[in-house]
Design goal:
Two copies of one chain form a homodimer. Chain A contains 14 helices and two strands, in the order H-H-H-H-E-E-H-H-H-H-H-H-H-H-H-H. By secondary structure, the first copy, chain A, is mainly alpha-helical.
């Protein structure tokens, strides 16, 4: 199903599909406009669309067609976007900029931003459950797994630990849980969802699960590194916010050099997980290699 | 399936089932405790459990067994509870008390309260999708309908209009939309879910849909009346908050007497909708009659 073996081309193509679908799920004439405007503001604010792309790339890697699963893929992006809106609130990270734009609450106010996040989270589930041409029992399992990854034992739980840990000394074990839950869980759910929707074998699902674990780790370490060495211009938000918020990160725990080594190790492990896949997994290989060289 | 024809007995029995199930879905040893504690605080804070009871009563009314649908029923209660947590935040209604207890953010802080709401909303979908012994295609449709009712075109949209309307003059039409969306939509989804899960005929589903519309209206008008004539002791939160927040309500629009008449009319219409049901709908009849005599 993969016709182009360039990561850039693959991603641009998929981003176009995702952006069109997202626009369709939150149409400009939806009522009441006051909430849809706030939801749309953050949903169309760009971003790498990494989670939906990973779902599609996983489906492609197991011989399916990722583009067939846009509703579930876009649901993941809605979940990601809602989490950013709530995370940026004054009661949480208190960030004024995101992806180079003013954050949702700076435009719409705190109350409407909370509701915009709630609306996107709810729309995510409605959209995912509208996925056609998939056996309903499989769809139920996939969406249930995404809910687990996004919820209190996953992403929301990771953010809760993060919030409660500000200004506290936490150990490496807690840091690892926090990041696995906060970022890794949804990556893993995205990859597994793609494989499950495309009816992959148990063996391939297991391999992709291992890949996901290493991918998530590499992603988080790189995020921590970028917060130190990135530029506001490129990452679209002020750098150094972790330090200002007295957050424990991979850089504060292992130094910049140590964090870079850990990231490379995670990338290597991710690639090993894919060793039984052929060229159909090239996007997944390129994605994780790109990860640690990215500048935003 | 209904063995007891007393509303009080029926509700107490169902509340016990619901409370046990809710405790099971958010177990005391769930990790990380920091978020589950906050979720549990509001989830076990009591409340009438009206939405899950309505789902079960609708299933009973069409000849099914409501108690078989606890996962979907409890998902509705989680959605309701999350909406209260977010609604009480300083950025929204800024209420310190709810159901006679300090509100979630007064105990856990604004950030954790936002996350507790997010966790409950996400858990609602995970829990609903774990519903056993229902055809997956039916379950997908039911949960999709609940998502629509809870989301930006439903409950969240109603709250957004409510938030944006504070201190503004809004007309009766906007008020009606706001309340239908804010409260009525989830009641309707609860009743329809019960009927759909129990494989009701189209005709019965339609009758219950009409009942739901009138029920929701009666409920909201009564809420507005209680905010004026209730006592903090009974409704568990300060009375008069609508007036303080300069909200347009049925009482401000139609006077107290006019609002009471509208409520009675809605109850009468709800009862007419059930005219083709026999004694199996007695709970639904008693529920709507109880509505306008309630003190909290």
């Amino acid at each position: 199903m993969i016709e182009q073996y360039s990561l850039g081309h693959y991603c641009r193509h998929k981003v176009n599909l995702i952006d069109s679908a997202l626009a369709q799920y939150t149409p400009a004439d939806a009522y009441p406009p006051i909430i849809y405007d706030a939801m749309r503001y953050s949903l169309v604010a760009g971003g790498k669309r990494l989670r939906p792309i990973m779902l599609m790339a996983a489906a492609d890697a197991v011989g399916g067609c990722g583009a067939n699963y846009l509703p579930v893929a876009c649901g993941l992006e809605m979940i990601h976007t809602y989490s950013l809106i709530h995370d940026d609130l004054p009661a949480m990270d208190n960030d004024d900029y995101r992806r180079g734009k003013l954050t949702n609450h700076k435009i719409f106010g705190d109350g409407m931003a909370i509701l915009a996040g709630d609306g996107l989270l709810t729309a995510a589930f409605g959209t995912m459950l509208s996925q056609p041409n998939v056996d309903s029992a499989i769809l139920v399992n996939v969406v249930k797994e995404i809910a687990a990854a996004a919820g209190a034992s996953g992403m929301v739980g990771g953010q809760a630990v993060d919030l409660a840990s500000e200004g506290q000394i936490i150990d490496a074990k807690t840091l690892k849980f926090m990041h696995q839950a906060k970022t890794g869980a949804l990556f893993k759910a995205a990859l597994r969802a793609g494989a499950l929707l495309a009816n992959a074998s148990k063996h391939k699902i297991e391999a992709l699960t291992h890949y996901a674990d290493h991918f998530g780790l590499a992603f988080q370490i790189t995020d921590d590194i970028l917060d130190v060495i990135g530029t506001q211009d490129k990452i679209g938000k002020p750098v150094g916010s972790d330090m200002r918020n007295q957050k424990v990160t991979y850089v504060t725990l292992y130094s910049l050099e140590g964090a870079k080594q850990l990231a490379q190790q995670a990338v290597d492990n991710a690639l090993v997980s894919l060793s039984e896949f052929g060229s159909e997994a090239i996007i997944l290989r390129d994605l994780v290699e790109y990860l640690i060289t990215r500048e935003a």
